[in-house]
């Protein structure tokens, strides 16, 4: 029976680019040799003891269980959820190949077919996002009828919620006894909180209000800002500059796209033209729904000319100046700092 898994692509997203370019999932766990001889969790424990000689025994057990899932338990045809850290999105793949060591690094890999990429996190309802937020690199997602709902997202682009026909998960075998699922995995509370904050921003700061939010962030960062009125703006939603009159460098021209609008290459070209026409120093392209692949390919090329703010950058910059934002904005988006426990080292490879 088909199953649904979450596989992380590096603590800092270091395997994400290769995953999409090569249609391959890669995990690390300090393994750089062929481990195809290991057919169950117990045979992987010595591998983990060798890879992590200073780790605790429970860490070896945890990592061995996760690696057993990756190389033995996950079957061709299973679906995989990959939270993409570098873009704060979610991608869905179907497993198409058995375990193989990477020919260059020896790291464990599985071939996949990407079914959906760059899905905004709010495509999924909060209960699934909670499961996707497990700290472990590899775990099965089984709660809340997750598999059927992910299949609906693949087919329709929408999460129907936990109301479709339930699917019974396969019975756990002895070799799977230590398999971690979303039911018992420690979750990333920071990401769960961030998801809730993003949903609030998406619902409150729509249309021109998102431009006003970006303007308030820039003002809190010390810039003088002029916002274009709602309606046709000639490709300029706001301008900002430094100094008492806003005439000093850096001088910025910004476009702001809210809602489900994804920035296309013509939008980017229009912003670059506006930077030249206004004799600004830099452009700022802001898009709550992100950027198309042709636009993202130009990030490095335009690094010294244009900054790109997706929802991740909007929220990061908002956090950095939240206390200095106007009271009206803080009233619409009331936040407070919280303390959470750092996860044990045995949760993530």
What is the helix tally? 11
Going by helix content, strand content and strand pairing, the class is: alpha+beta
Largest sheet: 7 strands, mixed
Measured between the Cα atoms of the first and last residue, the distance is: 27 Å
Percent of sequence in beta strands: 15-25%
- What best-fitting shape do the alpha-carbon axes yield? elongated
The radius of gyration computed from the alpha-carbon positions, rounded to a whole number of angstroms, is 23 Å
Total strands: 12
Mean pLDDT: 89
Number of domains: 2
Please provide the ordered H/E string of secondary-structure elements.
EHEHHEEEEHEHHHEEEHEHEHH
Instruction: List the quaternary state of the chains.
Output: single chain
Report helical residue fraction.
Answer: 25-40%
Could you list the spans in which at least 5 consecutive residues all have pLDDT below 50?
164-175
GO biological process, one term: DNA restriction-modification system
Protein name: Restriction endonuclease type IV Mrr domain-containing protein
InterPro entries: Restrct_endonuc-II-like, Restrct_endonuc_IV_Mrr, tRNA_endonuc-like_dom_sf, Type_IV_Methyl-Rstrct_Enzyme, UCP031853
Pfam families: Mrr_cat
